[in-house]
Structure formats: structure tokens, C-alpha cells
Write a structure and sequence with these properties.
Length: 237
């Protein structure tokens, strides 16, 4: 997952980046999906986080070795950000680029029968950071008690939690250090806002107040998300 911050990304540039990813992805070993996240507007009854990422590229790999290969010094991620479509951002002195690999924990949801797939959705992109020694206690409580509440949100289409791991990277950009990330996906910003003003949101807030202390910071950002799926993983020596 790579986040680009402190720059503006217009609609034209967003579409150019999506087109570039469609060309880049089929040549990347073990890459199965990329989700392109850019900021949108929604309202949360309890939070109003600012200065979120202008672009997040969420890249799914079928195995860790493929992700680490892409993160090598001359790997796929370096080649991607060397493309012309990213030149304006990479030449911006205010730009910050961060990356982090995670284990994906998907959670099955009951969707209405016959519900069509939605190409562009709205994601609540959440991150937790902490240097506390009790992260495992907090995470166990989150997975056991918070996730079931998250799954009850009205209009929820997709739910995933990402937990940290050790990984090898030679990328020239800063490593992020979130202890957990997650996303809740909705059809649009209106549906997300409705969920964030529901009784379930109140229950989530109450659980957060009573959960084991994380002693860190969290961020919650609404993002417009477009998914690009790729064929079966490529295997090369």
C-alpha cells in the first residue's frame, strides 16, 4: 500500500493514473488487484480528520514474495512511479510517499441476492498507529468485538482489516508504521455518511471508549475508490 500526501490530484490526472495502472499491472508478478483511492467528502458524527492522503494505491498480491519483488530497488513500484503519469507528483517538493505491507483479513458479508458489482465505490480508510506493548491485546479485542459491529453498518458492501508484518523493501520512500488498517466500503459517499450517523456508529464509538488502550493515534478518511482486477498471478524466475 502506497500513500501520497500533501498534493492535489485532479480528475484528469486520476484517470491518467488509472490508465497507467491498467498497463502496468499485467506485467507485475503475483499482482491480483489494485484499488485507487482519492479523497471525497462524507460526514462522521464523531470525527472530522483532515489532511488525508491525496492518493492511495492499494495493491493486492497472491503471496509475500511477489510483493517483496515489486518493492525491490529496480522493482515494479519504482518503475510505476517513474512513469510520466506520476512525474508532477514526484517532482513536488512538498510530496510525501509512504509504503507498508499488510496481511489482508477479509470478512464475509451478506449482500442482497443479485446485487450488481459496483466499479467505483466510497471507502472509509482507517489507520491506527501505536508504539504500545499491548497492541496484540487491543487487536484481539478489535477483531472480536469491533469488527462484528462494523459488519452491522447499514449499506456496507465490503469489509477488510489489515495487520502488520515484517517485509523486505528497497524502495527509496518512507516506511509507514501503522499497527492496523481497515476499510469499510459503501456504494457512495451518501451511503457512507448514512452509516456514520446510524445507531451502529454510536455503538462503535462506545466500544472504542471501553476497548483496551492503544495509546496511539488513528485516522479516518473517506475516499473515492476504483478497483482494477488482473488475471491469474504471473510467475517468473
Amino acid at each position: 500500500m502506497q500513500s501520497v500526501t500533501k498534493t492535489e490530484l485532479g480528475q484528469h490526472q486520476r484517470q491518467r493514473i488509472i490508465a497507467a495502472l491498467r498497463q502496468w499491472g499485467p506485467e507485475v508478478d503475483a499482482l491480483t488487484r489494485v484499488v485507487v483511492h482519492t479523497p471525497t467528502t462524507a460526514t462522521d458524527r464523531y470525527l472530522d480528520d483532515r489532511d488525508g492522503p491525496a492518493l492511495t494505491l492499494q495493491c493486492y498480491f497472491s503471496h509475500l514474495a511477489g510483493a517483496e519483488k515489486a518493492a525491490s530497488a529496480a522493482g515494479a513500484f519504482v518503475r510505476l512511479l517513474d512513469r510520466d503519469e506520476f512525474s508532477n507528483m514526484m517532482n513536488d517538493s512538498t510530496l510525501q510517499v509512504r509504503h507498508q505491507l499488510f496481511v489482508v483479513r477479509p470478512f464475509a458479508l451478506v449482500r442482497p441476492h443479485g446485487a450488481p458489482p459496483i466499479k467505483t465505490r466510497c471507502t472509509y480508510q482507517v489507520a491506527y498507529e501505536s508504539a504500545s506493548a499491548n497492541v496484540d491485546i487491543w487487536l484481539a479485542d478489535y477483531l472480536e468485538h469491533h469488527v462484528p459491529l462494523l459488519k452491522m453498518q447499514p449499506g456496507l458492501l465490503e469489509m477488510e482489516v489489515y495487520t502488520r508484518l515484517d517485509w523486505i523493501s528497497s524502495l527509496p520512500w518512507q516506511r509507514a508504521a501503522a499497527v492496523q488498517r481497515n476499510k469499510a466500503v459503501f456504494s457512495d459517499a451518501q451511503a457512507l455518511s448514512k452509516a456514520l450517523h446510524s445507531p451502529v456508529r454510536d455503538a462503535l464509538h462506545q466500544h472504542s471508549l471501553n476497548a483496551p488502550a492503544l495509546n496511539g493515534r488513528s485516522s479516518h478518511f473517506p475516499m473515492l475508490s476504483e478497483t482494477i482486477d488482473f488475471a491469474s498471478p504471473k510467475i517468473t524466475p
